[in-house]
Amino acid sequence: MANLRAGLLGVGMMGRHHARVLREVEGIDLVAIADPGGDPHGVAGNLEVLPDIDALINAGIDIAVVAVPTRFHEDAALKLAAAGVHTLVEKPIADTLDAGQRMVDAFAAAGLVGAVGHIERFNPALQEMRRRIEAGEVGAVYQVATRRQGPFPARIADVGVAKDLASHDVDLTAWVVQSDYDTVFAQTAFKSGREYEDMITITGRTKSGVIVNNIVNWLSPMKERLTVVTGEKGAFVADTSTGDLTFYANGTIPLEWESVSSFRGVSEGDVTRYAFAKREPLRVEHEAFRDAVLGHHTDLVTMEQGLRTLAVVEAALDSARTSTAVVC
């Protein structure tokens, strides 16, 4: 079977990584690159840097990756759908729910694979965590808490931290516990003089009853990417920046220290840091995209799921504006 002919729109900070991985994945040939801003990172190699999405489509591609600013996602995706090209769009799916819905409808009508690059689903620590949760190792899940904070990225100018970063946590939380958000209450802050928020906290509950808490900002000098899942048998801690997963088990040894044993909660048990294969998330995501195009079932984030994540983020922003809890 011939390799899939891939086109890449956008070779900026994220697009340069897509270019590298697309060249590495078996079954895919990167045949065309387009970016109206040229090739700032020198990743085109022997490929001509085309000026726009129309030129990319005219190169005769089977699949495309869209890695341009969010406000341009809809235009590119609709043109790709009309041309019969399976497409992976970087997250978030779009800058508005209406735009995202038009994208979902276009790919569904064309019978094409439309996906969104919520790459954290492919982080080895989260994939291992979800596998162990499904195996019952933590028992019933009570709470998911995430922390995603670090310095402001100058490359992001068209959306705030909620759509750019919190969308990661909303998607991974719902995926890990296999339940959508039901209600959210959020607060935002605007500290960097920009139009958009640079800090958000989201508190809520999933439809299955799991309590969720997402802390996200662009105001911290300390980069942190943590997901903590607490359940009846202990807690998983995933560090997605390193791909590490640790399990803190509830204690099983009776406590003899009176002032501690009077507390009627759990006690500390064994701590296990797991060893497992750690493959690059972006490569695993591209392999899932390839396999989905070939008709196989994968954990690729569909455009419908990407739209749902955007709806939750919009609900959180509405909550912050109105200081009320919002049903998602």
TrEMBL record:
Q: Name one Pfam family in it.
A: GFO_IDH_MocA_C3
Q: Which PANTHER family match?
A: BILIVERDIN REDUCTASE A (PTHR43377:SF1)
Keywords tagged on the record: NAD
- Gene3D superfamilies from the entry? Dihydrodipicolinate Reductase, domain 2, NAD(P)-binding Rossmann-like Domain
Q: Does the keyword NAD apply?
A: yes
Residue ranges of domain GFO/IDH/MocA-like oxidoreductase in the record = 127-236
Q: Which domain of life is it from?
A: Bacteria
Name used for this protein in its record: Gfo/Idh/MocA family oxidoreductase
InterPro entries annotated for this entry? Gfo/Idh/MocA-like_OxRdtase_N, Gfo/Idh/MocA_Oxidoreductases, GFO_IDH_MocA-like_dom, NAD(P)-bd_dom_sf
Gfo/Idh/MocA-like oxidoreductase N-terminal domain: residues covered: 5-118
UniProt keyword annotation of NAD present = yes
